[in-house]
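debug: dumping io for the single-chain case to check the tokenizer round-trip. Nothing else runs in this session.
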Amino acid sequence: MGLPQCVAVALGIVAALIFSGSGTGGALWGKIASASSLQETGLPKTATRPQLPSDLDRLNPQQQAEALLERAIARADGATQQIEMRADGWRGKLKWDGQLSELSSAALNSKDENVRDCAIEVQLAAYGLRKDDSTIDLVMRQAESSDHSRRVWALWALGLLGNRGIETDRVVEILGEHLKNFQGKPDARSEDARRWAVESLALIGTTATLTPLLDAMHNDPSPMVRERAAASLAESGMLSRNQRLLAVPQLISFSDDPSLDDQTHTWAFQALGAITRERLPNNSAVWRDWYQHKSFDN
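debug: decoded output
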């Protein structure tokens, strides 16, 4: 599937992603919990560790992808390795339907990093995107499109590619600039594009993404974008816990920053609790005192 063709399925793929939650107020943390439970409630439960299909090579690419993703989520031995080995051969041969969408969403929310990596590989295959520098250039042009669906697709695709190590630093810079360039535009499409830039940064999962995520949480005029940035720092996306812990001092500062509203203060406290696994009151002084004597357990 070439780039113009894969854009046509963008909205179907993007809409299915767990990272697409929106809204304000207390909705954020409930959405994260619901997403995380997908892998437990959305798939068949087995009493024993599942096995790989014995006739895997006789299945078509769609069937292979679905069977292996399901088993990867259930931690079947060898499933993630099979996906890594076969994903490039699936490129342009997968149809994004309800089953693959559900499996991909559940895999993206797995606690196992290898399973999350497999979800990204399957999505790249479904998009028909090659993992090389020339693809970044093509996708970048789509990110500047006046067509909103193309722009949203491209922002998410940049995150997929950046996560796979394709010009990651450049991608982070592009997404950070996208956030800043569109902050002054009050229309709904610009707000939605910034939201997707945040989701994409969370997907990349490098330490360099902390700065633009913190900037978005503090400075973006949209509560939805600030909320998604808070979620990305707290639990969503691909950052490790050790990376998230690096954001703690700034989040403590956000918790009583007079330039921020009460809701953003609350998100800062919620993020602090999720990252540190501490159950402290929503009191900035208490958090500062705790941080001065902190001792994190992995």
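debug: round-trip ok. The CA atoms of residues 10 and 153 lie 5 Å apart.
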